Fold these 2 entries.
Entry 1:
Amino acid sequence: MKDRRIYIMSRFCASIVFSLLFDFGSCITFHLPVNVNRCLREEIHKDVLVTGEYQVSDQPDANTILKITDSSGHTLYTKEDATKGKFAFTTEDYDMFEVCFESKYPMGTGRVPDQLVTLDMKHGVEAKNYEEIAKVEKLKPLEVELRRLEDLSESIINDFAYMKKREEEMRDTNESTNTRVLYFSVFSMCCLTGLATWQIFYLRRFFKAKKLIE
């Protein structure tokens, strides 16, 4: 019983450490000049919940557009006159996703200060609302942290599984490439051997025709 209690507490402490690591530095802040499009890219796995919260500093007459797309150009989220809000979507496949902010401003109005953009984007375990889960499932604080740790462990396992799959694909590609190189090398050697043999017989006939050899 004591060992089990120590085991639960160790997992609880580990979950807190992981939570701190994941929460730290998740917010991004940058300046957006007028009539400029700036994008952030991130690779995200399949079937992963992605949430985000953004805030753009107020700029009179400026229209800031937020657009989220995948590598195929499919729009996952778009917002005209984006000043402050939230977004959420679930990925359908492992892909590179792009979050773009574009500031449009009437030309000929002189120098305009840059807008300050703040983006807090989370995915996977970070994006889940465990307070809501605790209310729905009536979980205790320790059970919530264990659930968070379980989800985090599952996420890490999925990452390793994806890395293993990619490693297998790369190994198959390397083996296929090596096989093709081997076949090409054998074919090249056969061609060179045939060419050398043809040259020998050709020169032999040529020298015989010139009566240089018997």
Entry 2:
Amino acid sequence: MTPTPRAAGTARQACLSRLSASAGRVRPARLALAACALLASGAASAAEPYLYTHLARWPEFSSGDNKVSMYGTVDLGANWTKTDGAPAAKTLQSGGDYTSKLGIYGREDLGGGLKAEFNLEASLKADTGAVTATQFWDRAAWVGLKSRDWGTLRLGNQLGATLPLFVDVFGVVTTNSVSYWLASAIVQKSAYTSGISSIGLNSDLGNGASQVTTRVPRAISYTSPRVAGFDAKLMYAPGANTTAFNKVYNKAVVTTFVNGPWFAAASYNQVFGNNTVTGAAVRTDVTGLAGIYDAGDLVLSAAVNQNEVKIADGGKATVYSLGLIVPRGRHVWRVSAVYRDTSGVRNQLTKQEVDSAALGLMAGYDYELSKSVGLYARAGLIRNFAASTVVFQNAQLPLQAGSTNAQLGIETQTAALGMYVHF
């Protein structure tokens, strides 16, 4: 369906307001937000960007006010994961393409260009029906005011001020995305990591190293109106990690620029973890740059993220990502390549610096039965080099002979077939 110029303009305005308020992926709208960004320039073009077609799926982008909408996704697939030296794991997996979830979104027009809005969203395990977190509304629980002239203010559990997650052509799902596993670097315990916890975000960079979480609880955010293609989002999250030693969890800024098929973003975050031995707060600086070009029949994306732990002997990781989407009617092909390199990773026994790098590849195919129903196939691998120990699905690495340390230089593969339904 091709929107009229007026409808397209309304959709763009709603999208850009939403994108400015999130500067990232609202996880029922992984692709819709990309479309918003890429259509921000104004008048309808002859060839609409491919991602724009996903706008109609989500209630928060539809026209009209004074409404409350329920939405969600059920996504299930058969998954196979194999790590060198360990038996293969076969399971029915929830969230192979989209996170299975249930959400409520509402807004009210207060007049004068001011709207009140709220969002509640919970992730679900579609294979068992269980909730996936200790708090029910783990994906969103916020209230806010959106002004046409003054920008958007939100309070509560919301998306962080990071690079938009749709920069990853697989949406950074916590299952079939090499960007998720390598950018978060959920590394296994070995002599080259902190040596404290068996699994941790970027823990090879130092004890207390952390990562920007997709959603930040107890957060305050402000997003400016978009001017000449630019907007900016500021976030401050006091005590969001609920630990007594640290009064601040996340301080961040992200700015985005849109012009026709072009989209760009830059972000800077300070996130705080804790040293598991001393209990001291540890700061990790996370910076990112990203760009997308969407010509309608071809989508290209690129990004670079850097994580640097601000402690003595702290490490630094740089993650380079490339992505490609080729849509042809109901058929959509996706490919991504991600490389993680590090400096400052140390053997915790000798304190000597060691090499640690990993390469990830993921290929995917979608067949869209309708705007809300689709089938998908995924296949990928992660190849670790030197001291790196990143694997898919938190699969436990085999141990070195006669040691409690994980084997190094391991390759892990994954494949999945599944189906999703949006409502």
